[in-house]
Description:
The protein has helices at residues 20-38, 54-62, 67-84, 98-113, 167-176, 184-195, 224-229, 231-234, 258-272, 303-310, 312-322, 333-363, 375-397, 401-422, 430-451, 456-465, 477-480; strands at 4-13, 42-50, 91-94, 117-127, 132-134, 152-161, 181-182, 201-202, 204-205, 213-214, 217-222, 250-254, 280-283, 286-288, 329-331. By secondary structure, the chain is α/β, with parallel strands linked by helices.
Amino acid sequence: MKGDFYVTTPIYYVNDIPHIGHAYTTVAADVLARYKRLMGFRVLFLTGTDEHGQKVEKAARAQGLTPIELADRVVTRFQDLWKKLRISNDDFIRTTQERHRIAVERLWRTVRDRGDIYLGEYEDWYCIPCENFLTQTQLVDGRCPDCGREVERLREPSYFFRLSRYQKPLLEYIERNPDFIQPEGKRREIVSFIKEGLRDLSISRTTFSWGIPVPDDPGHVIYVWFDALTNYLTAAGYPHTQDGFWPADVHIIGKDILRFHAIYWPAFLLSAGIEPPRKVFAHGWWTVEGKKMSKSLGNVVDPGSVVDEFGVDQFRYFLLREVPFGLDGDFSTSALKQRINSELANDLGNLLSRTLSMIDKYHGGTVPEPSTLRAELEGRIKSLIEDLFVQYTSAMDRLDYYGALGRIWTVVRELNIYVDKSAPWKEKDPNTLSTVLHTLAEGLRIVGVYIYPFMPDSANRLWSQIGMDREIGGCSLQDEVRWTGKTTGRRTKKAEPLFPKIR
Ligand code: ME8
């Protein structure tokens, strides 16, 4: 074991069913979790649902349900989708669970005992869709600056967290941990936001009741973001044990909720004397066919139907290959088809089927043993593949999925060029022919390991077709990506298209 690795997604609100944005964050976290397991880490991969707060209460009322009834219904939609998307989470947290209430109460009491919570009165604006407190000057044309929707005026007694005390400690923390907020541009935004000054934060409400009551003052419910952020600690065992998983290695989130994660969350933790997470990575935002996704436009993408139509691995691949992680992207059916047909079906799928049919035709369906490698041909492929290890792992460790896939595909294209150059169908020398067939099988075996975190089912199918009898998930990446000739003597299977062409 290399150590522990703890990765999280946001916990999603249950006021609405999952869409492509939720799928994106969760697939990205899944790829990282699978990669880290292959690298020998003990991984805790957490996702879940955010079930309290005014927004969920309001949505439930509109549907004639109690909030917990709504949560119970919607949570299965998330869980079913995660199964369908091959999400390998180790835990699923719901903020209505008992273990979570205990953790939130403990964190509240700890922060309170530090002298960082006081009773006052909140009088200002509130955006229910964002569950966010806003000042008059933050509003844009009287609306929420983040989601553009109407805000409401609040005036009620409230507990406040002394966020103003943490301006300096936060800046120092960010300074000392330059990788804490990623990507870099987001770090700068947060730093300048903090430098403008932090006001104390309202952390309780009295005008609705769907939440965790404030300890020793049950007339208040705890602010949903104080409640929600604590989920990351709950799942690590807080307050009982932290079992080696805290601090979290990375919270993967969308850029919409960066302030909550990069300012409030570390401030609560610093107050409680708990180490903040090592990294918060804010990814970009998806539009759909060039437009903002919204219910009123009716263009919300249902990830389940995309999977049914195009395939699970095709969808996972597209999400992480279409845009560099951290930037905004646009989802369109034509772009998805284009990637599937050119990169998956043509580049990789065809390489596999050509290789299998040549092994079948020229060597009776058994991967031959190689003889001497020719420097310009097999030697070149072997060294490209050997160089991939450092390129791939350094990209993956930076959550540069786009870069990692780009590197793999460079090798895939080189393998295709190699097939054409070495032209096995013309080769007269049986030793050379064996060397070529072996090189292709060995190259594909190793490519299979690298693509596994992104496309686990297809990678396993690739392995099985070239005669490997293990599941990649149980292997060690470092062992399996070495050019060891493990494919020699394997019985290949009949070529079945890994990625059918889409018309
Ligand atoms: O904010 N593009 O939950 P939420 C990319 N409960 N990602 C998107 C997206 C889009 N168009 N739309 C949503 C909450 N997302 C809180 C979180 S965490 C302690 C509490 C993704 O259901 C993205 O990850 O509104 C974003 O951060 C998340 O969904 C918001 O999900």
